[in-house]
Specification:
single chain, 110 residues, alpha+beta, three-stranded antiparallel β-sheet, two-stranded antiparallel sheet
Length: 110
């Protein structure tokens, strides 16, 4: 378990450990494409499971790197006052599209 760099082209994940201070994004050692940094909660699908990798790619491209996403967030005067219930990440591309639309405010944007 730990943060991971994943190559969405090669469908490979590389463990980086749990110390966030030593985490950095790098290029894939096989195809030299810039890899995506994923949260430590991410569990990569098997390399041959193309449908699940499509879901991972869609979510990552839309700012969901398997960080905690909450069912309900209460905001008062532009300040978050409470979070309630983690939601599960989707399994299919259709579910992923609905998920991104519903939780787009919680996406990580750079």
């Amino acid at each position: 378990m730990g943060y991971k760099n994943i190559c969405l082209d090669c469908r490979k994940a590389f463990n980086l450990g749990t110390d966030f201070n030593n985490i950095k994004v790098a290029n894939c050692p096989e195809c030299d494409v810039l890899m995506k940094l994923m949260d430590h909660k991410f569990k990569p699908p098997k390399k041959g499971d193309l449908k699940k990798w499509q879901v991972v790619k869609y979510l990552a491209e839309n700012g969901f790197i398997y960080q905690h996403v909450y069912e309900k967030i209460e905001i008062e005067s532009n300040i978050i006052v409470s979070y309630q219930n983690y939601t599960s990440y989707p399994e299919t591309l259709k579910e992923a599209k609905d998920f991104v639309e519903k939780y787009k405010a919680q996406a990580i944007r750079k």
